[in-house]
Amino acid sequence: ELNPHSHPEISLPVEAVNTSNDGEYFLNVFAFTKNATELVPVNHEVAREQFKLSGNYFEAKTANGELKITKENNRLHFTSGNVSGDFDLQQGRFFRYAIGNESIASAPEPFFWRAPTDNDFGNNMQVNLGIWRTAHVNRTVKKVIAGDQTPEGLPIIVEYELSGIGVPYTVDYLIQNDGSIKVTSSIDMTGRDLPELPRFGMRMQLAPQFSNLEYYGRGPWENYSDRNTSSFVGWYKDDVKNQYAWNYIRPQESGYKTDVRWLTLTDNNGFGIRIEGVQPICFSAKNMRTEDL
Predict the structure, then answer these.
(1) Rounded distance between C-alpha atoms, residue 79 and residue 98, angstroms
(2) Distance between CA atoms of residues 272 and 213, nearest Å
(3) Measured between alpha carbons, how far is 82 from 197 in angstroms, rounded to an integer?
(4) pTM of the complete model
(5) What is the pLDDT of residues 242-259, one digit of tens each?
(6) How far is it, in rounded angstroms, from Cα 215 to Cα 275?
(7) pLDDT tens digits along 112-147
(8) Distance CA 252, CA 239 (A)
């Protein structure tokens, strides 16, 4: 019972949680109607909230392993256990990354566009920000620097110029001791009068068999930073084909997820790729290219 303008306290029957262990702990609270009315059925959800109790997923983690590096001409080869890969020191890109005999051919590349939404057309985004649509296409490798191996791994810096807009863009790779690759990208728009970025990120194309998606972040439905609190942080699984789930009248951006800790895309044998943030990241995984939308 609750009178208008009153504020009751309710004790929730939640068992004590040992939050001293590694990990993150959340409390999810839902409110449902107790009785049916002419408009709302019984057990209809009217409110929800998620409270973080403790934990920080992004505390520094150590990548352990024995990283071995060889260089020949403009090729750098690395191995750590059953992980191996090759990097082209002239083109500034990975052209092979493998676990055992299973390999992934592509690597993340810069991308700054997203499919305009109905709201975007309202402020003429597709024209006003259009310079970013192809900013990733014509990029020139200015310098590739392979550093010395450190206790953390092998750093590689690739300096580009986004030739279409004359802007420096840099990708810092760190091949870590366990064979995983830390990727840090940055852009320098100092002195340039450019429109706002629709998106600052990277994308990669995987083979169709990597259709099994798992992630730890907000879901399960699409969510964006300006309205994402109805999507709780959790561990979700789905098929990539279901990620473009909203039949908007006009094809547009869809299926985006925020506050993500990690995601995996795997085939039916469990082989695939894991992407993990050093801070909350966002992603979408769809069976079509942004250009097609």
Answers:
(1) 9
(2) 10
(3) 39
(4) 0.91
(5) 998 777 888 899 999 999
(6) 9
(7) 999 999 999 999 999 999 999 999 998 999 999 999
(8) 20
